[in-house]
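Record type: monomer structure entry
Structure origin: computed from sequence
Chain ID: A
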Amino acid sequence: MPFHGEIVDFFKPSRNTQTAVELGTRFREACITKGIEMPGGLSGKTALVTGASKGIGRGIALELAKRGCDVAINYHSDRAGAEQTAREVEALGRQTLLVGGNVGVLADVANMFQEVLSAFTGLSILVNNAGAQVWKSLLELEETEWDRVINTNLKSVFLCTQRAGRHMKERSGGRIINIGSGCNKIPFPKLVSYTASKGGIEMFTRVSAVELGPYGITVNCVAPGAIEIERTKLEAPDYAGTWAPLAPMRRVGVPRDVASAVCYLASDEAEFITGQTLYVDGGLFTRGPWPYPMD
């Protein structure tokens, strides 16, 4: 890729006080401004992101758009949020489509895919991001609450992957990325339905990768750790201050961290990676109990 002098300048020693995250952001923005396709570019591809009204879903939709994707934005109840995501995607010069529907309901999923495939020439990337959680202990959780979380988080992944897989099989390939969680690895107390659903997503990812691989379709899981978004800020008075000291990287994540991993797995660079779970957690769930000082 030919680099413009202005972009190369971002990496000169005089700028070495900036963090890698800041440099990466400036690099992406410069590529967009100069009309240069950055490494891992996704120009000409179309993506569907479920639950993209805000938070991680919005971050994924925007990063895909920055890298050249047209993006279909699914929402259930938050149309205003989805419209804001759409405006930001369009501001990046990409086409977008709003598709409402409950991704845990077969009829809604069928209608959603019909709309997407009618509006775009095809679907290259599916990101199963829609999620819900209920904070209750195992002994207090209601059946309806269990069903809502399982349907939104896990059944939706089955329904959308099945529809996308059938379409991608005819197109000889595609990328499916499922959004997991740190509770893919360890149990989260008082989030029994959420933990069960995310654990199910990981095994669903593996079996889907095995079955869909012969058709050129990769299926992977991205498992975020402590990511600061609208929802998680409600979990603690100081969410970042609570979680950052526990992570080896000493910070919480932001939606862009997750979105960058999704874009990598959606790119040609990851064409031989499938059935994997990539943890985006700053090392948070890598370390276990350790009673001795670290320094």
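Annotation 1: The beta strands are 46-49, 70-75, 96-100, 125-128, 174-179, 217-224, 277-280.
Annotation 2: The longest strand covers residues 217-224.
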